[in-house]
Design brief:
The model has no long low-confidence stretch (mean pLDDT 97). α3 packs antiparallel against α4. 27% of the residues lie in helices and 24% in strands. By secondary structure, it is α+β, with helices and mostly antiparallel strands. The chain contains five helices and 15 strands. The strands form four sheets. A five-stranded antiparallel β-sheet has the order 8-7-9-14-15. Strands 1, 2, 4 and 5 form a four-stranded antiparallel β-sheet that branches. Strands 3-12-11 form a three-stranded antiparallel β-sheet, with no helix packed on it.
Amino acid sequence: MIIPKTLEEIELIRQSALLVSKTLGMIATEIKPGVTTLDLDKKAEEFIRDHGAVPGFKGLYGCPSTLLTSVNEQIVHGLPTDTPIKEGDIVSVDCGALMNEFYGDHAYTFEVGEVKEETRKLLQVTKESLYVGIREFKIGNRVEDVGNAIQRYCEAQGYTVVRELVGHGLGRKMHEGPEMPNYGKKGKGKKFVEGLVVAIEPMINLGTRNIKQLNDGWTIVTRDGKPSAHFEHDVALINGKPELLSTFKYIYEALGIQSNEEDEFRAKPLVL
């Protein structure tokens, strides 16, 4: 079921989303060879609680962690472990926070040192596809217009789109309607309505789109063992247009990256 939000509720979701953004920004400087994803998880939980919120994932559906950390061929839902991160790895960090009764939820895939050029390009295209999809989140369009745009953009460059895992509506629950697949046919699916808030999150593979789940009951990996990338933003439909509630700018500030990729999706500049 689609649950439109008032402007006041959207602002509360924005607060939660920005706390997740700040958490990812803090984590950005910690991701380096020798660090474990368990280390990252502990730091993230402490950071979120210190800011007056609770981890959005921990305890949800039995999830044991604050972060879901997916390394290399892991697509999503990777559980933190005590295995050190290595030079050349990629790490998707997915994080949620619950504050003021509303959730924030988004993700970024980080490079650890120098990664292979084919992997770096996968990350670039996946992140670009996120914004390609967000542009289609507007009044007059339907759910599969977003997925179709993401699918066409990624497949045109030789990548594959995961089908079994999708984005979702966001609000008082982590997962609300509608489901937001990263594939589809133009003009299909539920109509977008003013006040809708969704998490759009392309999950794109270098090789096959086929997946499998590990024995931990959580971690999803590519069946051929090739890398996968995952980027996610929280977006609200305001005045008929998409507006970002989350941001990668804290990550970019931490890593010294200059980018204006989010500017077209903001009614006013974001002050860090």
